[in-house]
Design goal:
Length: about 240
Amino acid sequence: MCEYQDLPVKGVLSDMDGTLIESTPAVEATWAQFAQDYPFISLEDVLKHSHGVRTHENMIRFCKLENPDTIASEAKRFEETILACAKKRQEQGLNGLVILPGVNELLDQLNDNHNNWTIVTSATKVYASAALSISQIKQPESFITSENVVRGKPDPSPFLEGAKVIKQSATDCLVLEDAPSGITAGKAAGAVVIAVLTSYPIDTIKASGPDFIVKDLSSVSAKWTNDHYEITVDAIDI
């Protein structure tokens, strides 16, 4: 481990699923249900490649859908099923949608003196709002969802738009991500990228080229000083 102190950034752009919220069990259960309707789906392939990608793009790629109305309705059904699976799991005493380690503490620090942070997610606004509510994360006033961009991650557009929301340049921002598509997008936007090892093996994350790798956000802290955050990272040596 190696600690980096006082890394200066003017804004923080965070992914949601897998970075702030653990949604994997509910997502896997949802794909298992969809595989019953689309029996050609390879669950191994979809679970390896779908994370961090917009839902409607996954409907096109893995469910082989072409009609725009069908894509939209199935994407909506997919996200509704995740929420339903999460609720059912929680009623059974299992993890549904839960906040990941270190998230509450870091968000408290980001909100302590300034609000120069927001969420940049591949999910829709309806799903993201519900997921944040279930996991008891206070929503930023404005954040970027799949509806806000023409091209999703790994294109840099989502993070470029996120930087505009907090009135900063992406090159002055820190991106928090867990997926290769998001890491690639953050780097392409010119941001410093911290990757968490909550969803993918370290070799996969390393290959995506983040600036820092941490176990989870308990290894990251922030302090507002004058006109910027000073970030401390307890990073894994890469």
